[in-house]
Design goal:
mainly alpha; Growth Hormone, Chain: A; 2 domains; globular
């Protein structure tokens, strides 16, 4: 059986008060803290780092090269194989998942603090080295944390709650590392800000120390370690190819291919439009302050609303219907940004005295709801596809499938917009681009509809005995 099916009670319809009562479960609260810990390093080694380097006078080319430290997130399957197979000495007594989460948080936090102790103007290579250390620790943390979330869930309903709680914590961290840190840096400087944020990784350490190890999954991992100790070639083979073979053997070749294709296309619309979002807003003559306030006032609350709706939908309707709703919502809302381009800018929708709502604000709010909802839907669905014994590696492979095509194709987004400008205004070119980006979500809709209702899965067996 899958990790999410452990001790699963007979299915029953969940009422609203059941959902609210479940939010008080200690592991759901700990998952919120773990989500914050997971989200803290992400922007600090990506976009926010670029802002610091730009303020320090570092050239654009060097800033671009420095962003490659984020590639550590795209090879989580490597970290997953390590987390699934190698027990840590001494602190390994905490359990395989907890020990890996703890050491990775210390590494990530230490890397962030180390970044704050060097001057990018004279020690850029050291800053990048510290960022790489933080990125590796963060990628290990996410991999181990995903496995813990899946394996600790008492039933599929709780898995949805844990996923939603993790998403909320992650989004809280993004707000602090994208917006609030700018206020810190303006007053106390970038170095001290990074030291403070690195120290904040202690939030995750506390959560891990209060958590407990998933007993069933830990037993499976100990069994595999005992077999691996007797046969090193088997251990290497099972760690590298075992998760992939087990995935295809469990779901079948055709169904596994459909699942991986759906996962790959699910967020492709969002990835594709990403690099062109700010240039589009600038082309629409939107003021920076207006864009920032819209993201803060409309985007953030609506993202949390979308996450909550996604978690509630997973509980009440199930993972597959929630996945289908998210697949329809994303491309529709992303395509709706084209309205602004064809109109030639933002325009008022509602007005009542000092209170007014513009089209950009409304679309931004709907977009945030759709992305938050669909994010929970996909994570919850992928979490049901892993097998005990391969949880970390299989889930890492699935998350790599989510990002790899989008990260590659989005590099061509600017060239596409330039090509579309022939005979058109820049706003019209951006509008057509957003329609094209939305259209990339059509394969995901079709694939979601083709996927059957998931069935209970057997526990993954070793490839060799």
């Amino acid at each position: 059986m899958t990790a999410s099916d452990i001790a699963a009670p007979p299915p029953r319809r969940r009422r609203m008060w059941d959902v609210l009562a479940a939010l008080g479960r200690p592991r759901v609260a700990l998952m919120l803290l773990m989500g914050i810990s997971s989200g803290l390093p992400f922007m600090l080694i990506n976009n926010t780092l670029g802002a610091w380097l730009k303020a320090a006078g570092v050239g654009n080319a060097a800033i671009g090269f420095a962003s490659w430290v984020g590639l550590t997130y795209t090879i989580k399957f490597v970290w997953g194989a390590i987390v699934d197979r190698i027990p840590l000495p001494i602190i390994g007594r905490l359990g395989r998942r907890r020990s890996w989460m703890l050491i990775s948080q210390v590494v990530a936090g230490g890397g962030l603090v180390g970044m704050g102790l060097v001057d990018p103007r004279t020690q850029l290579s050291w800053l990048v080295a510290m960022a790489l250390i933080a990125a590796i620790g963060a990628a290990f943390q996410d991999t181990a944390m995903d496995a813990w979330r899946i394996e600790i869930a008492a039933d599929p309903d709780e898995l949805g709650l844990l996923t939603a709680s993790y998403s909320v914590g992650y989004r809280i961290a993004l707000i602090f590392t994208e917006a609030v840190i700018l206020m810190f840096a303006k007053r106390i400087g970038w170095p001290l800000s990074y030291v403070i944020y690195g120290s904040a990784m202690a939030i995750g350490v506390v959560a891990v120390l209060l958590a407990r190890e998933p007993a069933a999954a830990d037993a499976v991992m100990r069994s595999k370690s005992e077999i691996g100790a007797r046969s090193l070639p088997w251990a290497v083979y099972d760690a590298v190819l075992g998760p992939l073979i087990a995935f295809f053997r469990t779901h079948g070749l055709l169904m596994s291919t459909l699942m991986l294709l759906m996962i790959t296309f699910y967020h492709l619309s969002d990835y594709m439009r990403g690099p062109m979002s700010l240039p589009y807003y600038i082309s629409l003559k939107l003021d920076y302050d207006f864009i920032g306030l819209t993201r803060l006032v409309f985007g953030s609350p609506c993202t949390f609303l979308g996450i909550a709706l996604g978690g509630l939908s997973s509980l009440r309707l199930g993972n597959r219907p929630t996945l289908i709703v998210g697949a329809f919502a994303q491309p529709l809302v992303i395509g709706s940004f084209a309205i602004l381009g064809f109109h030639g800018g933002d325009f008022p929708l509602l007005g009542a005295g000092p209170v007014a709502l513009t089209a950009f604000q409304a679309i931004m709010g709907l977009d945030s709801i759709a992305i938050g909802f669909s994010g929970v839907a996909l994570v919850a669905y992928m979490s049901t596809l892993t097998s005990l014994g391969y949880t970390a590696t299989q889930y890492a492979l699935l998350t790599s499938a989510v990002a790899i095509l989008g990260k590659f194709l989005k590099g061509f987004s600017g060239a596409i917009v330039d090509a579309l400008q022939t005979g058109r205004t820049p706003d019209q070119a951006f509008a057509l681009f957003y329609i094209c980006a939305g259209a990339l979500g059509l394969p995901a809709i079709l694939l979601c509809l083709l996927l059957p209702r998931p069935k209970p899965l057997p526990e993954a067996e070793p490839i060799l005995q």
